[in-house]
Structures are given as structure tokens and as C-alpha cells.
Amino acid sequence: MDRRTWPWHSGVMRRFCVVPLLLVLVEAAQKSDLGGDASAALINHSPMLIQRLQDLFHKGNSTDTILRIRTANSDEVKVIHVHQLLLTLQSDIFDGLLLNQSEVTLQEPAECAALFEKFIRYFYCGEISVNLNQAIPLHRLANKYHMTALQRGVTEYMKTHFSSESAQGHVVSWYHYALRMGDINLQESCLKFLAWNLSTIMSSNEWVTVSDKLMVSLLQRSDLVLQSELELFSAVEEWISKNKPDAPVIEKVLRSIRYPMISPSQLFQIQKESAVLASYHNSVQDLMFQAFQFHSASPLHFAKYFDVNCSMFVPRNYLSPSWGSQWIINNPARDDRSLTFQTQLGPSNHDTSKKMTWNALFSPRWLPVSLRPVYSESIPSSSQSNRLEEGKPRLVVTSAMSGMDFAGVTFQKTLLVGVKRQQSKVFVKHVYNVHQSTDEVFDFLLQADLQKRTSEYLIDNSLHLHIIIKPIYHSLIKAK
């Protein structure tokens, strides 16, 4: 999640070493000269060339072009002396701007102008340092001047630093930036991180910066990870109170809350105490009434009259004990482990007292029968050891009550894998979904090296998992 989520140290600097086009051409020419001669060798003085190019930039020797950087509503002009060849070789935009010109004036936003000299230095050495506050302006500059490699590098930096610690938060602003830029890949990465770590986001300073469009996008998702639907309603109410969006937005947001996932006693409470709900009661009255009906009858009977195949009746990834269990596996590279836990049969008040028992099995190096070693004197122990190393982590979740009649409901098993960052916060790095027809979680931690104590998947040499059981209702008889 690769390192895809959960806060890293604030102020951490990430360096991208992207070899400039000039060095790529030089190295390619050198390697082609070697041919197939076994006695040939490559003498590489690229670092020396990079150092000399950096000195050329800092000292300004033999410059032939002047860049003047201006910002709106400011008389300040930043002057940078450059070598046209190095800029035009790597950017077709600069190639066009500097055609038959030795001086050009560029208009840049203040945050981009402040980093423009750092940006130009990249043309000379192919290396740049980035922190959280600099990611957007550097990405904008790379995009504007068609520096594709740098743009990819900054995008990758953003994806691996979603969970880095920052005072005001940054993932929401990165999403809004990606939306403006039309960067679908970055948008989806931001949305996934926000959805999988929503409880943390809702309790941070970022929550009030969420735009109307982002809020609607988040509430439409079933993969939100949070304590309960009631927690989500409370956070949405706070967002509405502080941001005061237009009435159509408020109505759409309130209608995206999954009221059947809230218990009757809690529904009565928010009806009585919520100022937002009081103001927009008519907008959600039908949903509230339907939720109370859902809780008053068995799901099977309810499904005869209402369509339960819609998002309103699909649980999200709730972390409360009624829906699953946390599982911390110490020294996960050693032995097989097992866990038994209980969940409620379903979200309906009709089923909350009914419990389901589940068994989970974790194996760090599971092998199919066909690949398991045969321990005998005829097979060297080294060969047996190599076979064991071919195994992969495996997780199986099965019901201990398979003989019961579960007409009208199937169970989706969701597994969260967490990693820790600053201030002991644990963030979701991977989410795996397994439906009733399958017990085993496929592709489980295929890229994780659990043998290494320094593995990013381990927290103090332990694997942090959370298993969630989600009952999914379906109609046996067409709703009238």
C-alpha cells in the first residue's frame, strides 16, 4: 500500500533522482560502445558531470538566457540566469518559449514562483527535494512545462505520503487539486485513502475543508472505514453546521446516510437532538420511516415488500465489536495462528441478539499440498527449506455455524491491514473483500515480507488486522 498510507514524520524530505535527458543519451552511447567484448568496461563519471552542471547553475558561468518570474498583484520580479540548451532539451514548452529569445517573462502563482529556482535546478541535476507543502506547486510546474518524469515523481511522492503528519492535513487539498487538474489516478488514490481512514479524517482539521462534491463522493461509498454509521452522521452534521452548503447539497448528503444501519434507540435520539435533522426532516422523513420499518420486522419479511438490493441496506466497514474483531498477530513469520470471534447476525434490530461465530486461520508460509516438502533422508534439508520459502501468507475465515439457515442473507468478509505512523496512529493500508462462496482471502499480503522486522506491514514486529463481517441482504420474493 508499497507504502501507500498512514502518517509519516512531518518534515520528511523525499528525493527523486531522475537522470536528465543529456545524461541518458551519454550513458546509452557508452553502453553501446561496449558491444559483446568481454574485456570491455564502463568508466562512469556521471556524478562528476552532475556536480559540474550544478556548479554551472550556481555560479552562472556562460549563461545565455534570462528568466524573469512575476506573480499577480506584485511588483517583485525574480531573475534567474540559465543555459538555454539544458532547458530546451528537457521541456518542449521552454523550447517554444525560448525560440530566438534570450530573455522571457513568466507569470506564476506565488507558491510556484517561490519554488521556481528549485525547479530550474532540477534541469541541471535531475534531483529535487520535496515536502508536503511543496508537492502541489512542484506538480503544477512540472505539468505546465511538460516535465513528465518530474510530474510522475511528485505524484508518487504524494501517494506514499498520504499518511504523513501535518498540522492542517493535506490529502483533502491534494484531492481537490487532482480534481482541478483532471488527474483521475491521483483522485482515486486520494479517495481510497480518505475512505479507508475516514474516522481519523473526521476527527482532524481536514474535515471542514471537504468540498461539497468530495462529501457526496465519499458518502456514496460502501468501503468507508469508521466506527459506526452514527459516527458518520455526527461528523456530517458538524460539516453542515460549519460549511453551510446550499440546501440541495444538504438534502443529498443527509439522504446518503444509511439510516437502517443505526439502531432504533439512536434514531430516536438524533431525531430529538439534531438541529440539522430538525431543519431538513421533510427531506429524509421517508428514509427514517423505512429504517424504523426495517428494524421492526425480520429482514426476510421486510424484503417481501421493499427492495433491499440497494446501498441503503449495505453495511459499510464498521469497526465496532458487533461487526468483527481486531487481530494483532505477534511474530507473524513464525507459526500458524487462529482466532474465534462473534458478530451479530445483521444490522436489523430483529437480529441484533442473534450471534454468529467465526473461525479465522492465519498461516505465514502456506503451501498447496502439491508443493509441500516430503521430509525424508533422500531429500536434502536445503531443498526442503527452499520449498518452505515458496509459501505465501494465507488467511481463511469460515463460519462455525454452517448448518444454520441464512435465507435472504449472505456474508461479505472484509479484512483491513494496518500500519502505524506518527503519534501511534494506525492507518489502513490494504482492504481485502471475500464473499460467502469463498473462505480464503486471495492475494493476501503477496508483496509483504513478513520475515523482516523492518517490514512496513509490521508494527513492533506484529501484524495488525481487523476482520469485518458484513451481512448482505437480498430479496427471495420480488418486492410488491
UniProtKB/TrEMBL annotation:
SUPFAM superfamilies: POZ domain. Residues 1-28 form the signal peptide. Transmembrane segments: none annotated. Coiled coil: none annotated. InterPro entries: BACK, BTB-POZ/Galectin-3-binding, BTB/POZ_dom, SKP1/BTB/POZ_sf, TRAF_BTBD17. CDD domains: BACK_BTBD17 (cd18493). Keywords: Signal. SMART domains: BACK, BTB. It comes from the Eukaryota. This is BTB/POZ domain-containing protein 17.
